[in-house]
Amino acid sequence: MTELIQWRDDFQTGIASIDHEHKNMVDLINILASDLDSDTPESEIRHSLGRIHEMIEAHFALEEMLMQKHNYAEYRDHKADHDFLLDEILDIMDHIEEFKGTDFRSNLKERVSGWFGVHFSTFDRRLHDMVEFH
């Protein structure tokens, strides 16, 4: 299976529970990418996207609770970035029919994989640095 998102050390925050969930999210997205390369029915693709959205939403709630607990100064920007990704996934789900006949995998990669790389290594890294000193 070709990975859509390859796990990199710079994705790690140092917070074990968050890193574990990040890896699970990446795994689910890579499974979805593999399904997109096969003849997986659209209904299963839509279901996978729904599972990914639910998992990410729950994970974001955990991070946001942690940020609020520590009065994290970057909470608003961090949450806005979370909301952006959730909206992207919902948009893909709402418009999945429009991707028929196009390179859905490439579109998914463009809209999601770049976000993970930037978010993990910037927003979440800074969150870890703040939590580490409290």
Provide key terms for this protein:
5 helices; mainly alpha; elongated; Four Helix Bundle (Hemerythrin (Met), subunit A); 134 residues
CATH class: Mainly Alpha
Tertiary shape: elongated
Considering DSSP H and I runs of 4 or more, what fraction of the residues is helical? over 70%
Count of alpha and pi helical runs: 5
**How much strand?**
under 5%
Q: Tell me the CATH topology.
A: Four Helix Bundle (Hemerythrin (Met), subunit A)
Q: Unreliable stretches, pLDDT < 50, 5 or more residues? A: none
Annotate the secondary structure layout.
Elements: H1 16-36, H2 42-69, H3 75-94, H4 104-121, H5 123-132
Descriptive notes:
By secondary structure, the chain is mainly alpha-helical. 72% of the residues lie in helices and 0% in strands. The chain has five helices and no strands. The protein has helices spanning 16-36, 42-69, 75-94, 104-121, 123-132. Helix 1 (16-36) packs antiparallel against helix 4 (104-121), helix 2 (42-69) packs antiparallel against helix 3 (75-94) and helix 4 (104-121) packs parallel to helix 5. The chain starts with 15 loop residues before the first helix and ends with a helix. The mean pLDDT is 81.
Summarize the structure.
The protein is 72% helix and 0% strand. With 134 residues, it is mainly α. It has one domain: Up-down Bundle (Four Helix Bundle (Hemerythrin (Met), subunit A)), CATH 1.20.120.50.
